[in-house]
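Hey, I'm writing a tutorial for new members on how sequence and structure tokens pair up, and I'd like a real worked example in the thread rather than a made-up one. If someone can provide the structure for the chain below, I'll link this post from the tutorial.
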Amino acid sequence: MRFLGINAIFHDPAAALVIDGEVVAAAEEERFSRRKHGKRPVPFSAWELPEQAAAWCLEQAGLRPEDLDGVAYSYDPELVLPGGEGQDARWEEMRTTYARRAPNFLATALPGLDSAQVRFVPHHIAHAASAGLAAPYRESAVLVCDGRGEAVSHLAGHYRDGELTVLASQALPHSLGLMYEDLTAHLGFLRSSDEYKVMALASYGEPRFLREMRELVHPTGDGGFRVEPIDWSVYAKALGKGEKWTSDHADLAASVQTRLEEVLLDLAKWLHERTGARYLTMAGGVALNCVANTRLFAEGPFEDVWVQPAAGDSGTALGGALHLAHASGDRVAPMPGADLGRGWTDEELGAWLDVAKVPYERPADLAAAVAAELAADRVVAWFQGRAEYGPRALGRRSLLANPGNPRNTERLNDVKGREQFRPIAPMVLAERASTIFGRGPMSSPYMLFVHDVKPEWRDRVPAVVHVDGTARIQTIERGRDPLLARLLEEFEARTGVPVVVNTSLNTAGRPMVDDPRDALECFGSAPVDVLVLGPYVVRRGAVFAG
């Protein structure tokens, strides 16, 4: 059967298509509209739909809207408690009204769709399905933490053979995600967008306010938690955009980050006691906190932790479609990877370059040619295969560089126009990861954990070592990514280092590059030395000669 999933209610609108239990396509609207996060998470934007992403998913499978057996909308307006705590008192009614009308909005956006085919899937059920049904396990505990859904901010449950048993949830206004969002705004960053900056800033501080945070944020012993109102200005003054942070701000970030980790560990231990499950699967925006994920892996009671690569709200499109597929009787298969977005043939990419009238070449050995550029300390824009689903660059739309040059951290942050306290990440062959990195899971294909960099390697890969001695790695499997595996081998042959810098191919405030035009525009506007578009290589010197 054929099910389309839609996320539209808060932020990161996205669409995903599941056919006969198999994930066929998934993409975020921002990659088409070129508007970061697709839209702002305000109630009066709830009518905006991922129209382009949905149309592309159908086109990818050769389907029309009338061919669908159902459409999952990852929010159920009937679960909203009017006037409930944690809502926007001025605008919540508008958000709920728009959600109720979503079937008609979708029928208009996708001509031929019967509005009766649209089914509301509760927000946290969609998150849970994106983890428990997409993971490579038939049985797992599932933990969802985010800002909010209809009336709760958290779900703890147990998946067995596709069936979810909900064991606990936390009613609003108590929310770990909203707490972290509030701190993000207090530190001068963009709420529901820049939370990862707070996580990076935390590494520069000490948890000096941890005692106070433990009094304000605490588990309740029944699978839930409480978050008391927090006056952040008691600990550090509010920052305006562009204002410089101080040790107080870093210490506050460190204190909140540490307390978040502690509460998540408590929730995980409670969940393990109730389920006895070997594996934990996770989704929700809080699951993008890779520092907390590593602590759950290292100190928690589960043998393994699997995090949905699109753990934020975009992933609820996939979860909603998987939920309907299982409910219809389809046997749902684990997701095949995160490369679920748009892709182009070599011929199509060559045609783009011809239209752009830029000089290019097609090396006989692409991996060797690019490794030589990286060894010569050039920055490479890397565009290969189908685009990633989720916020991480995973070797499809990436900026690559030499990790041996300590100046490359600052250099790449300058290329991207981002804050200098933010780290850049490495990719490494899976079989070499344990040689260089420790503590986190050695299979980390989605870059959702941090790992300690072994002391003897820190001076050899300084560009990817964060201030706390960690790195957020992506492990590369030869069978799944043969080209990237060969690139890493060729780079090591030239430098003795089996690691390459991998950060997202975009500039600050812009979504990740998605189509060939985006790649060419980014290459033309940012100080990148080489563009690799499929099998073709474009060099800046050749393009701008004379």
